[in-house]
Specification:
alpha/beta; Rossmann fold; 4-stranded parallel sheet
């Protein structure tokens, strides 16, 4: 099985962290190939940045999807997920969706915990888009004062544990979802310091992707996720232009 782990931001160090955690979570025989967005923003915080990252992700999928059994959009807000499922024939898993759905299998509700307050509006809309608002006890984010994406776990690991504890005690969370690609791997390090299950979204996404591949789902031919009719376009990558025009199958 080959899984494409697609980071829709431009920070290679984040991709390296994602890949390390994904490979540790994968089953024997599963190959993880990680790619970093060739352009865009260093990390996605706002709705506008998510739209940019989602567009780049679609171009990357158009170029590479035929080489893989499934793909993972490795940013918590799942930028471009709906479009990717609509366009491409392989299973596409979102980091946020995988984490939240896994949490729903472990408790009645969950809290999303992350490291930057700017994420909160986008994350709240992501929860609603996935139809999980009634299962979300809270979204708790720290202030936007981290030094770098590469060191946020070392800087604020204890602060995030404290924030998760507040989500459990004050919001009634049955499960905590650690949100944001730079937090990949933190759940395993702090799981015994938080009194409820803690979800690592990268590990959850890898396992969900493996399950979907094993189920061998077909691409929808009707409904809202059928592939749109062919259409000419301009200014997009050659691969996405050809895919939109149905020049590539």
């Amino acid at each position: 099985m080959r899984l494409l782990l697609l980071n829709p931001n431009t920070t290679q160090a984040v991709t390296d962290r994602l890949a390390h955690v994904a490979r540790a979570a994968a089953s024997p025989g599963t190959e993880i190939v990680a790619l970093t967005a060739p352009r865009g923003v260093p990390y996605i915080v706002s709705r506008a940045e998510a739209v940019i990252g989602g567009g780049v992700a679609l171009e990357m999928l158009a170029e590479h999807h035929a080489e893989f059994d499934a793909a993972i959009l490795a940013a918590f807000g799942d930028p471009g997920l709906g479009g990717a499922r609509e366009l491409f024939p392989l299973p596409v898993v979102g980091l946020a969706e995988a984490g939240m759905l896994t949490a729903c299998m472990l408790g009645r509700n969950f809290s999303v915990v992350s490291f930057a307050r700017g994420f909160e509006p986008w994350y709240r809309e992501c929860v609603a888009w996935h139809g999980l608002a009634s299962r979300c006890a809270s979204i708790r984010c720290m202030a936007d004062d981290f030094a770098s994406l590469e060191t946020v776990q070392q800087e604020h690991g204890s602060d995030l544990v404290a924030l998760a504890a507040r989500a459990v005690e004050e919001d009634g969370a049955d499960v905590v979802v650690l949100a944001g690609a730079p937090l990949a791997g933190l759940a395993s390090a702090v799981r015994l310091r938080i009194p409820v299950p803690v979800i690592d979204c990268v590990a959850a996404a890898v396992r969900q992707a493996e399950t979907l591949v094993a189920l061998e789902p077909r691409k929808a031919l009707v409904g809202s996720y059928r592939r749109p009719a062919g259409k000419a376009s301009s200014g997009l990558s050659p691969a996405l232009t050809a895919w939109l025009a149905h020049e590539r199958e």
